[in-house]
Q: What sequence folds into this?
């Protein structure tokens, strides 16, 4: 497994006045997404996160290769896979929580731990799990539970811990005292009994069995064929945190072309330190400048406004001239291209793709054959539109880079290449003490480095002494 260091500063922030009560409530979820590698799939997930105001989502079955940690617009994506791209887990965080990441342990393609700094003292641990399906033997399942035990060793006793994911187990709707409530779904199976025993041993409780919800808000997976439904995805918290759980339910209307439903939980976090949130403002709708008619209109408006400025109104100092020019450009932009909501997304995701995603969502829960057929058609349409839009954008981007190079605009060309094709996966090696225990505290890490360097120098001194002794014994001059 590997440890990911903090990436430092993410997107810039604009101070605002947050509501302390609302800030203390975390909306977190888990979702088996059935691959994030397909074109447009991650962007689809981020659209749903914004729509449902999800702050953090743990994902299973990402099928992404290797490990990574990077910013995508205003979201931080941390994932862990293998060389073949099988299984795969990850945690997606919005900007505020992405900045709180203290460490991440990419344990395997089925377990990931992310530690978040709530305030100076308190830490929130998120463990995303993807348990093997029923085709795997009990020995494989037990091996994974042993690995979860190893990860829990990295969690402090007084730290808040949330375990979430696709457990491929059914605990049913019969209450198990201190472990699960009577608002589960379906019947309990052997893997469900194993999960309950694990929770009992580790003092965790299964949150999505605690709240009375309609049946369509309880099931998390639909078996191929669409007739059988099961509850196999769960969010677990320590029993001591149960009183802080406000809600836990599924969103059957959330759509990412998966046979699993998004499971969401609201939890109140105590003593959460406020991070200044980014002000949700508006930006100029630059996409309209691609239309030749509007572009000409904008250019004419700028030219007319500059021509109408009286020379006596032009300030003598440079800052005054700049402000006059800037305001003139802004006024022309507002009247011609207007403003749009600041919703960051991939540059190639255009409105046609978003409209298809929105249309597909309407048919996700369709019951008639006609509705199911329509969903499949829209699923294919989204895939085609996303690929076409991305290919078109790549061609235009290559042409822009090529044009910059031909006209000597090397800095602009380099910035474009670095922005869209540069290294985005940042992985760091884990820091362990002498006994192999992972260290998270900055002071402990610094002391460990000091200890290591001193040990290195001592070994070097001992080697020099040995060389000198051997040289003297042989009658040679020491080096």
A:
């Amino acid at each position: 497994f590997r440890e990911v260091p903090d990436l430092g500063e993410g997107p810039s922030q604009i101070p605002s006045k947050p509501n302390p009560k609302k800030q203390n409530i975390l909306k977190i979820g888990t979702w088996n997404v059935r691959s994030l590698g397909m074109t447009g799939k991650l962007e689809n997930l981020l659209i749903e996160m914004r729509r449902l105001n999800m702050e953090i989502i743990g994902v299973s079955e990402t099928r992404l290769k290797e490990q990574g940690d990077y910013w995508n617009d205003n979201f931080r994506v941390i994932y862990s896979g293998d060389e073949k791209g099988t299984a795969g887990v990850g945690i997606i965080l919005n900007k505020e929580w992405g900045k709180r990441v203290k460490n991440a342990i990419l344990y395997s393609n089925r377990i990931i731990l992310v530690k978040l700094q709530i305030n100076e003292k308190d830490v929130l641990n998120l463990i995303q799990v993807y348990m093997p399906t029923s085709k795997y033997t009990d020995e494989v399942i037990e091996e994974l539970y042993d690995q979860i035990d190893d990860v829990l060793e990295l969690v402090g006793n007084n730290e808040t811990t949330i375990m979430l994911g696709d457990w491929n187990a059914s605990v049913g709707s019969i209450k198990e005292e201190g472990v699960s409530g009577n608002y589960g779904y379906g019947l309990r199976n052997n893997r469900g009994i194993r999960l309950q025993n694990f929770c009992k041993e580790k003092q965790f409780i299964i949150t999505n069995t605690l709240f009375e919800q309609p049946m369509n808000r309880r099931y998390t997976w639909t078996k191929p064929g669409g007739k059988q439904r099961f509850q196999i995805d769960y969010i677990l918290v320590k029993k001591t945190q149960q009183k802080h759980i406000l809600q836990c339910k599924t969103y059957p209307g959330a759509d990412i072309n998966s046979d699993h439903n998004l499971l969401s939980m609201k939890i109140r976090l105590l003593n959460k330190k406020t991070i200044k949130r980014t002000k949700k403002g508006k930006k100029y709708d630059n996409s309209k400048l691609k239309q030749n008619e509007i572009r000409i209109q904008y250019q004419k408006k700028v030219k007319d406004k500059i021509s109408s400025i009286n020379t006596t109104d032009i300030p003598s100092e440079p800052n005054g001239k700049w402000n006059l020019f800037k305001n003139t450009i802004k006024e022309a932009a507002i009247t011609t291209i207007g403003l749009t909501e600041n919703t960051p997304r991939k540059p190639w995701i255009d409105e046609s793709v978003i409209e298809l995603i929105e249309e597909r969502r309407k048919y996700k829960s369709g019951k008639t054959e006609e509705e199911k057929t329509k969903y499949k058609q829209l699923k294919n349409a989204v895939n085609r539109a996303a690929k076409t839009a991305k290919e078109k954008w790549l061609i235009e981007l290559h042409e822009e880079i090529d044009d910059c190079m031909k006209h000597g605009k090397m800095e602009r060309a380099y910035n474009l290449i670095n922005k869209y094709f540069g290294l985005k996966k940042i992985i760091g090696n884990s820091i362990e003490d002498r006994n192999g225990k992972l260290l998270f505290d900055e002071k402990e890490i610094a002391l460990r480095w000091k200890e290591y360097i001193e040990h290195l120098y001592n070994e070097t001194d001992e080697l020099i002494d040995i060389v000198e002794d051997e040289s003297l014994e042989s009658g040679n001059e020491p080096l």
In short: The first strand starts at residue 2 and ends at 4. Residues 76 and 446 are 26 Å apart (CA to CA). The chain has two domains: 2-268, 282-421. The domain at 2-268 is CATH 3.60.10.10 (Deoxyribonuclease I; Chain A).
